[in-house]
């Protein structure tokens, strides 16, 4: 029954005298009260659930990256301080399966850098160890700067791809004017049976001292392990670099254009650029190489991410990402996982047209391009590039 005139409402019509002007039936008041009680109970239960995820056995304290220190004597931040970080992401209101702590990681990183400690249990700590590790790559000789810019190039490679690594070395060797402020290392896992072939990698590293290798199996679905190894190695052993180029070994990079691109930025710490992907769906087909299960990542859409074949970012952001990696559960797809980490740090990813996933048709303009599967292909493109340069000089 709809009431058009509150003056005609009586008790027998289902409303109380004291509430006639509000026109709210008593049964609705009881429903509102019951729902409010249930909501308060759910919120209290959720808070208690969050507190269960904050054990008191591990403390973290490091300036640039998070390390474990169970014997620390410093008084860690109390639980109430940690809970101040709780902040449901606008990306999705459901609790992520990709990490344990739905917190303000921007503030978390700042406070870690300020020397504070937190009782947060790491959930993504690598069990793998280095087989080869050029620890002095950026310190001996010292990595210098050109107009306050120095670059570390991390190249994801496979043990069998010696021909691609060697081609990159050959092309890099004559560019001596860049050697003082640029370093190159290759990121590798191991063969399925490392006893048979890894000796070749050890000999190669002994000759060139540029291979970072850990003892995980080198395969496509372990690319996240390789990517995180690169981030952690860069922060630990080459923090002198101001920027990092991360790319595959079948890509070519134009160091002149990369250097100019970085130096053109007013705020160089804000660089995180490559080929940007937006609203990419999560692949649920088990037969696909891009398959990710609901248990691994529950959302149907990935946050913005850069295609993992080639992208550039600042050491400023690399240190932030390395700090939160232990607290964000991994995803098999490495580029989308970096996108998740960037989202949690409020990092704006930039689309840069001179990073291309197409063939290297014009190396004079691009920063990075793909299409190489053999030494002959790279040398052919390089020869064309040199010939065009010589022609310009003669003209």
Question: What order do the helices and strands come in, and which of them pair?
Answer:
Elements (H helix, E strand, L loop, with lengths): L25 H27 L26 H5 L21 H9 L16 E3 L18 E6 L5 H11 L9 E9 L3 H15 L2 E7 L5 H15 L5 E6 L2 E3 L1 H9 L8 E6 L27 E10 H10 L9 H11 L5 E2 L3 E5 L8 E3 L4 H20 L1
Parallel strand pairs: 2-3, 2-5, 3-4, 7-9, 10-11
Antiparallel strand pairs: 1-4, 5-8, 6-11, 7-8
Structural class: alpha/beta
Tell me the quaternary state. Answer: single chain
CATH class of the largest domain: Alpha Beta
Q: What value does the average pLDDT take?
A: 78
Question: Taking strands numbered 1, 2, ... along the chain, how are they ordered across the largest sheet?
Answer: 1-4-3-2-5-8-7-9
Record field, number of beta strands = 11
Helical content band: 25-40%
What ranges have pLDDT less than 50 throughout 5 or more consecutive residues?
1-22, 42-99
Name of the CATH homologous superfamily of the largest domain:
Spore Coat Polysaccharide Biosynthesis Protein SpsA, Chain A
What can be said about this structure in brief?
With 395 residues, the protein is α/β, with parallel strands linked by helices. It has 10 helices and 11 strands. 31% of the residues are buried.
Model description:
The chain is of the alpha/beta class and 395 residues long. The chain folds into two domains: 6-52; 130-394, Alpha-Beta Complex (Spore Coat Polysaccharide Biosynthesis Protein SpsA, Chain A), CATH 3.90.550. It has helices at residues 26-52, 79-83, 105-113, 162-172, 194-208, 223-237, 255-263, 315-324, 334-344, 375-394; strands spanning 130-132, 151-156, 182-190, 211-217, 243-248, 251-253, 272-277, 305-314, 350-351, 355-359, 368-370. The strands form two sheets. An eight-stranded mixed sheet has the order 1-4-3-2-5-8-7-9, sandwiched between helices. The chain has a three-stranded mixed sheet with strand order 6-11-10, with no helix packed on it. The longest helix is centred in the first third of the chain and has 27 residues, at 26-52. It is globular, with a radius of gyration of 27 Å. Residues 1-22 and 42-99 have low confidence and may be disordered. It comes from Crassostrea virginica (Eastern oyster).
């Amino acid at each position: 029954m709809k009431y058009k005139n509150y003056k005609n409402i009586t008790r027998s019509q289902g409303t109380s005298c004291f509430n006639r002007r509000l026109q709210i039936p008593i049964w609705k008041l009881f429903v509102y009260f019951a729902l409010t009680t249930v909501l308060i109970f759910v919120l209290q239960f959720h808070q208690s659930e969050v507190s269960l995820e904050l054990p008191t056995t591990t403390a973290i304290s490091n300036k640039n990256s998070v390390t474990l220190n169970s014997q620390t004597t410093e008084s860690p931040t109390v639980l109430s301080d940690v809970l101040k970080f709780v902040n449901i992401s606008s990306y999705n209101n459901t609790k992520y399966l990709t990490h344990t702590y739905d917190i303000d990681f921007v503030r978390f990183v700042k406070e870690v850098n300020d020397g504070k400690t937190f009782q947060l249990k790491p959930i993504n700590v690598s069990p793998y160890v280095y087989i080869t590790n050029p620890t002095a790559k950026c310190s001996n000789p010292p990595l210098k700067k050109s107009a306050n810019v120095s670059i570390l190039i991390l190249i994801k490679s496979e043990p069998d791809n010696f021909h691609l690594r060697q081609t990159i070395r050959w092309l890099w060797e004559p560019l001596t004017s860049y050697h003082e402020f640029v370093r190159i290392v290759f990121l590798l896992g191991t063969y399925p049976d490392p006893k048979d072939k890894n000796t070749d990698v050890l000999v190669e590293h002994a000759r060139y001292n540029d291979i970072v290798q850990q003892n995980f199996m080198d395969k496509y679905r372990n690319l996240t392990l390789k990517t995180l190894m690169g981030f952690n190695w860069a922060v630990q052993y080459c923090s002198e670099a101001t920027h990092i180029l991360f790319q595959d070994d079948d890509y070519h990079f134009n160091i002149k254009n990369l250097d100019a691109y970085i130096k053109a930025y007013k705020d160089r710490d804000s660089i995180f650029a490559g080929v940007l992907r937006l609203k990419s769906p999560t692949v649920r087909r088990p037969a696909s190489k891009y398959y990710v299960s609901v248990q691994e990542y529950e959302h149907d859409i990935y946050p913005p991410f850069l295609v993992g074949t080639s992208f550039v970012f600042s050491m400023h952001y690399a240190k932030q990402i390395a700090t939160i990696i232990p607290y964000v559960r991994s995803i098999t797809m490495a580029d989308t996982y970096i996108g998740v980490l960037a989202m949690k740090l409020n990092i704006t990813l930039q689309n840069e047209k001179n990073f291309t996933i197409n063939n290297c048709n014009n190396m004079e303009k691009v920063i990075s391009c793909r299409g190489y599967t053999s030494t002959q292909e790279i040398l052919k493109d390089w020869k064309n590039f040199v010939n065009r340069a010589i022609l310009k000089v003669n003209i």
